[in-house]
Design a protein that fits this description.
213 residues; alpha+beta; D-Maltodextrin-Binding Protein, domain 2; 6 helices; 11 strands; binds phosphoribosyl ATP; binds zinc ion
Length: 213
C-alpha cells in the first residue's frame, strides 16, 4: 500500500474494517498483521504496480492511473506487465484530463501542441487512439504551472474537484482516463495457504463494501 499520500488513510481504514490490526512504525517499511499471516509493505504508490507485476508482493492497493501507466510503460520495456484485478475499492476517485488555458477556445485543436504531464504513456496512448499528433512534455510535479511557465500549451493531469485547474487559469477539455483505487494480485496462482488467506480477506472486504452501500 501507499505509505503516505492520498490513498493511505482509506487503505488502512479498509484493512482495519476487514479486521486486520497493524502496529505501524513511521520508519519501517514492513508491518506484520496481528492474527493474520500477512505483512503490510508501505511504499511510494509508483512502486506498487511493479512490485505486484514482478511477483515481489502478492497484493497491492493502487490507483488505476498509476497501474495503467506502469502497465503501458512495462509493456514497451518488455518487462512483466500482468496482474489480476480483484476488487474496485470505491475511493481515490479522480480523472486524468487534458486542460488548456481558460481564455483559449476549448475547441482549438491539440494538434502540434506541447502537453505537460506526469503520465506520458497514458497520454500517448490516448493521442494515438484519437489520431492526434501532439508532444507530451514529461514533468513529475507542478504540471499545472507548465503553461504559465511557457513549458507547454496544455496539461494532462489528475483532477478531482477541479479547484487546482481553476486556481491556475486552466479549463478541463477532455477526460482521457477515469480512476479509483484497485486491489490487485500478482499473476498466477498463489500457494494454497496464501490463497486461503486471500479468500478470507476478500470475504471480509465484500462484507465491508456491502455494508457501506
Ligand atoms: O509519494 P507517493 O508517490 O506515494 O504519492 P504521490 O504524490 O505520487 O500521489 P498522491 O498521494 O498525491 O496520490 C495518490 C493517488 O491518489 C493518485 O495516483 C490517484 O490515483 C489518487 N488521486 C485522487 C489523486 C487525486 N484524487 C488528486 N486530486 N491524486 C492526485 N490529485 C492531485 C492532482 O494531481 C492535482 O494536483 O490533486 C490536484 C487536483 O485536485 P483538485 O481537487 O484541485 O482537482
Ligand atoms: Zn507517486
Amino acid at each position: 500500500m501507499q505509505k503516505s499520500g492520498r490513498l493511505s488513510d482509506d487503505t488502512l481504514k479498509l484493512l482495519r474494517a476487514c479486521g486486520l490490526r497493524f502496529n505501524l512504525h513511521e520508519a519501517r517499511l514492513m508491518a506484520h498483521a496481528e492474527d493474520w499471516p500477512l505483512d503490510l509493505l508501505r511504499v511510494r504508490d509508483d512502486d506498487i504496480p511493479g512490485l505486484v507485476m514482478d511477483g515481489a508482493a502478492d497484493l497491492g492497493v493502487v490507483g488505476e492511473n498509476v497501474l495503467e501507466e506502469a502497465r503501458l510503460e512495462r509493456e514497451v520495456a518488455g518487462s512483466p506487465a500482468d496482474y489480476r484485478l480483484l476488487r474496485s475499492l470505491d475511493f481515490g476517485h479522480c480523472r486524468l484530463s487534458i486542460a488548456g488555458r481558460a481564455e483559449e477556445d476549448s475547441a482549438a485543436p491539440l494538434e502540434g501542441r506541447r502537453i505537460a504531464t506526469s503520465y506520458p504513456y497514458l497520454l500517448r496512448d490516448w493521442l494515438r487512439r484519437e489520431g492526434i499528433q501532439a508532444t507530451p512534455v514529461m514533468l513529475t510535479g507542478s504540471v499545472e504551472v507548465a503553461p504559465r511557465a511557457g513549458l507547454a500549451d496544455a496539461i494532462c493531469d489528475l483532477v478531482s474537484t477541479g479547484g487546482t485547474l481553476e486556481a491556475n487559469g486552466l479549463r478541463e477539455r477532455e477526460v482521457i482516463f477515469r480512476s479509483q483505487a484497485q486491489l490487485i494480485a500478482r499473476p498466477g496462482a498463489l500457494p494454497e495457504a496464501q490463497q486461503v488467506t486471500l479468500e478470507r480477506l476478500l470475504r471480509r472486504l465484500d462484507g465491508v463494501q456491502q455494508a457501506r452501500e
